[in-house]
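Please go through this protein, sequence plus structure tokens, and consider how the sequence yields the tokens. Keep your notes short.
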Amino acid sequence: MMNNVFDEIGRTKLIAVVRVDDADTAVEAALAIAEGGITAIEIPATVDQFDRAIRRLSLHGGLAVGAATLFSESDASKAVEAGASFLVSPIFVDEVWDVSLDSDAQYLPGAATPGEIYSIMEGGFEPIKVFPAECLGGPKYIKSLLAILPDAKLIPTGGISSANAREYIDAGAFAVGVGGSLLPKGLLEARDFKAITHLAFGLRASISE
């Protein structure tokens, strides 16, 4: 059974993946995205001092802050200590699951193939991240997966934007993870966080159409 974090993500249908260079930029970008109405935020472990960003964001009420791209017990533990409410990896990682078991943080594992998704479902996990979604076949792939695994709660991530997010939801996705299209390099370099807020608004609007 899903906990409240994933229930809320299922309601809003969106997770923002804030993959930037450093913790300070991650915090500013995440808050700009949240101002645009997307309140589930993933901070990848590839961000320099990612745990510091999670700690700062966790102090803001109303945000569900997770750590992503986790492959090690060390990074997962850092995320939990910093206040992450969910842990994400692009594949199933036993060490990350173990950290989740010992904490209040929920685990969102990733998969790419029907066999991987089925195995993770059999382990009792939901939802499941599907990555890299667009490279795997986009909304048609999600629809095909759900034709044979109708109970799967899938969160496609990778290559998703306001231009195609609704197609994924219409294909049956539980939610979508969106990163690069919310954080164009030019806007980050210009530190134009108001424009990032507008992109978040636009993404939300595309989902609710």
In short: Strands lie at 14-17, 40-44, 64-68, 86-88, 106-108, 110-111, 128-130, 154-156, 176-178. Residues 4-208 form a domain with the TIM Barrel fold (CATH 3.20.20.70).
